[in-house]
Amino acid sequence: MKLKHFARDLGRCTYCPKLCRFCCPASEAEHAETVTPWFKMSLAEMLRLGRIEPAGEPAETLYHCFACLHCRTHCRHGVDVPTALAAARALVLRAGGEPDSVRELLARMRASGNPWGEDLGSRLRDGLDARFQVPEAQAVVFAGCRSAREPSVQLEPLFDLLEAVDVDYVGLAVEVEVCCGMPLWQAGDLEGFTAHARKVAAVLSRARTVICPCPTCAYALGTLYGLHDVRISARVLTADAFLAGALADRNPARTLPGQYVFHDPCFQTRYLEQGDGPRQLLAAVLESPLVEPEPWSGDDASCCGGGGLVPYVLPEVAAQAARIRMGQLAATGAEKVASCCPGCAQQLGAVAGGLPVEDLIEILRRAYA
Amino acid sequence: MLPSTPADPDLVRALEAICGADHVSAGDADRMAYARDMWPRSLIRQRAGAFDHPPEVVVWPGSAEEVAAVVKAAVGAGRCTVPFGAGSGVCGGTLPVRGGVVLDLKRLNRILDLVESDCVAHVEAGAIGEILERELNRRGWTLGHFPSSIYCSTLGGWLAGRSAGQCSSRFGKIEDMLRKLTWVDADGRLCETPFAPPGFAPWSADPLIVGSEGTLGIICSAWMVIRPLSAKRRYTAWILPDVEAGIDCMRSVMRAGLRPSVLRLYDEFDTLVAGSDPAVDEPGSSLLGGLAEKASAPAKALFHLGLARVLQMPRLLNRAADLLPGGCLLVAVFEGEDWERDLSADLLAEICAGRDGKDQGEGPARHWWHHRYSISYKQSPVFMDGAFVDTMEVAATWDRLPAMYRKVRQALAPLAFVMAHFSHAYSEGGSIYFTFAGAASDDAAALGVYDRIWDAAQAAVSAERGVVSHHHGVGLSKARYLVRQLGEAGSLVCAVKRAFDPHGRLNPGKLGLEEMDP
């Protein structure tokens, strides 16, 4: 994945009149032409051509991307901006030109295996009932760093739900890196990412099914690892895809009141193209029809600000994107937000005065358990 | 490379005191980003790695009061100011040719008020078109302004350049939708006039500010007419034997008092492009694909040479396009009540049938509507292939329009491949939107060809008493043609400029104002 291989995409963006500008969350949060996909790709093209140095402010600009892929929804050329920018960051990293905030993030990743720099493995082992910690189970849950950090949001409800519906063949993969390694990839540390992926794949090699509560992890394990020649033989599923099968013949114990609006996680809907799955599960348990924040829904859903490295290296920009997204969701008149990504839940949940945010798994637990 | 001119630290501090340090930048990345807009001449320079016009500082004010304070600070420091929307302009109108302070207005992006009973909304100038339209739609309204730049342009930019949307035949140009402006003058004063419906509006400076491209004042917000969102449309399309017959149909439609939301006529070659698949993405194919498909076998071989090589044979290409069979596509879309849509479509059918038109059903019009913003995607492959493409939107009265079309084509035939459509119609006349593509052996030579194309095209327009620009504005690219068109009246325009901006601090170098000033 070298920048020189992206010449076509870089040129398409450089000479494009910014036709994805309106939907780019970085552009909307910061209001600057500098962080539009057009100009970030123009900078990457200048980098490719050796017209700018891989350091300083131009290089720093390359990190102002949520990797949400919303730009591709409106790109008739099908340009994959996040991947091209990751290749550009790899070049910056090799030259030692990355910003300090990225250098610190990478140090945390290398020290702890996750972007928080915390011992999430211990937290997971200590925080979740030991009976669920069955790494040799047929189907294992790959927690992901955000869920591992707060097991009560997704992991505990997931196992409660599975227990309630008599699914006993799922265990938690605990002796594994709890992060999928995506921050390494997004920072341009492709060698580090590949090494991290190999470690994850080795531990998961015995599983027949890997369940990812976080759609970003599902994409990383199921797709991105393969693009870097790391194979996981198990079937990788998002939690909603697994639960759709597990709950197929069951009726909920109760339906839930309240008006929910659905927020599409970028990796669930645009990367994995599985936006329908969580909607169908929710439709089965909600008393009122799910509300859509039209037209900012589905492939056209705005990012919550939780994507890419932005929450780690530019937290105020990420918070502004979250406020914009919460505004779209709240404008529907709904009472609560439903989503299916721990990153989205944390990002949107932190918006002051915003709607309460609930994860799909917790909603299903209340309905079925 | 980017010229290295460090910003005046006192100026930066003053601006930071007004807008906050996070909203002021003299950094290289920002200066590079704001050193260009979408003027194709700039893109040719950019291809060669040039940054001709970087600003000294970029500032993002968060309110009209901050805009005023920034202008005052810039004046105090002896700097000029250049207002900036989203940089989609194709005439160099936002290029900071004297450096200075660029004011990016996109933090001013709110709908401040929406009065349903009066069908008006008060909107800040930095609102991006598509986001604004989506929000109005959510509330059951539309602005009715759909330029093909809607994804990447702002309300303030539309007003500054007298923009026209694709539904202008029904809703008018942007200035027709304006009821009141708030703007900042060259001394940093916030100016506004009382709101009033157009029939009894007081005399004000607003009409001068609109279209002045930031040279007389900086637009901060505007009260705009909005309409209830219409869910029903009727689509219809006809093939007319030639451009003249098509123009005659458009004229008849407008004289009959019909109000189509869309009325567009494509010449023979543009008819092929309008019907093409915008997703086709091989270099050059999306621009000349129609011609390549229709060409004879020996001629087809030419297209394998690559777009830039083929475009260096413009005479041959234009001859080939002239020989195309197939007629000219006329697309119409009607909105309104059932009776209005049906009656309008019936009348259009009568008019077109009377000019030997052939009914194409609704398919081509639906296709056009679905792809109505797609044409801009064709730009990148052309520039990547070493060629260039540009557009020229001019207007004239109906009696002059056919001759103007022929003369511009004739003038450009030796220089560029050219096609055209007619997309904005009025009872008195309409506009022609020429698209021309060219190439040369290198970028320096391409600039020479590019300039000769514009000179030749505008000379032909002038000969038919056309106007230099219909809705893209003037900026840098058409400044000398505007000077010629205004003639002696230019001195009056300059007097206005001197009254508004005696020291020439607002967006200098644009509209030919300095050339006209005696």
Properties at a glance:
heterodimer, A: about 375 residues, alpha/beta, four-stranded parallel sheet, three-stranded parallel sheet, 20 helices, 7 strands, about 5% strand, B: about 525 residues, alpha+beta, Uridine Diphospho-n-acetylenolpyruvylglucosamine Reductase, domain 2, Uridine Diphospho-n-acetylenolpyruvylglucosamine Reductase, domain 3, Vanillyl-alcohol Oxidase, Chain A, domain 3, 4 domains, seven-stranded antiparallel sheet, five-stranded antiparallel sheet, 23 helices, about 20% strand
The dominant shape of chain A is: globular
Mean pLDDT of chain A: 95
Count of DSSP strands of chain B = 18
Our estimate of the beta-strand percent of chain B is: 15-25%
Largest beta-sheet characterization of chain A? 4 strands, parallel
Task: Give me the strand/helix succession of chain A.
Answer: HHHHHHHHEHHEHHEHEHEHHHHEHEH
Number of helices of chain A: 20
Structural class of chain B: alpha+beta
Quaternary state of the chains? heterodimer
